[in-house]
TrEMBL record:
Originating species: Prolemur simus (Greater bamboo lemur)
Pfam short name (any one): FGAR-AT_N
Coiled-coil regions listed in the entry: none
Protein's recorded name: Phosphoribosylformylglycinamidine synthase
GO molecular function, one term: phosphoribosylformylglycinamidine synthase activity
GO CC, alphabetical: cytoplasm
Keywords, sorted A to Z: ATP-binding, Ligase, Nucleotide-binding, Purine biosynthesis
One of the GO BP terms on file: purine nucleotide biosynthetic process
Taxonomic path: Eukaryota, Metazoa, Chordata, Craniata, Vertebrata
Record bears the keyword Amino-acid biosynthesis: no
Length: 131
């Protein structure tokens, strides 16, 4: 079975406004909600027999990052959870390959990353609530 590699993208400045909007919408239904943080996660299906080399990892991190924000991609989540937080991950069904996956895979292949055969993007939400 092919491993799924996860690349987490740190929220940028414009996502703060989106998180505020999401928080205001959710507080009507969940009054104990204190805050919302988000991040993107690129879920990469890696088909090679071995895990990516350091050079391949460098390419993947570069492809999923923003050139104006160096260091914004990590293999560990940026969202630090406490015991009262709720983590939600929203994305496509795993049995359906999206058009964006097809495009991202084409870019990966052009960069010499032939072992990538699917990349699905999900948005992760950390909901902070009163304990």
């Amino acid at each position: 079975m092919s491993p799924i590699l996860h690349f987490y993208v740190r929220p940028s400045g414009h996502e703060g406004a989106a998180s505020g909007h999401t928080r205001r919408k959710l507080q009507g239904k969940l009054p104990e909600l204190q805050g919302v943080e988000t991040e993107l996660c690129y879920n990469v299906n890696w088909t090679a027999e071995v895990l990516p080399s350091a050079e391949e990892m460098k390419k993947l991190m570069w492809l999923f990052g923003c050139p104006l924000l160096p260091g914004d991609v990590a293999q560990e989540s940026w969202l630090l959870l406490s015991s009262s937080d709720l983590l939600l991950e929203v994305g496509p069904r795993l049995n359906f390959s999206t058009p964006s996956s097809t495009n991202i895979v084409s870019v990966c292949h052009a960069a010499g990353l032939e072992a990538v055969d699917r990349v699905e993007t999900t948005r992760r939400y950390r909901l902070s609530v009163w304990p």
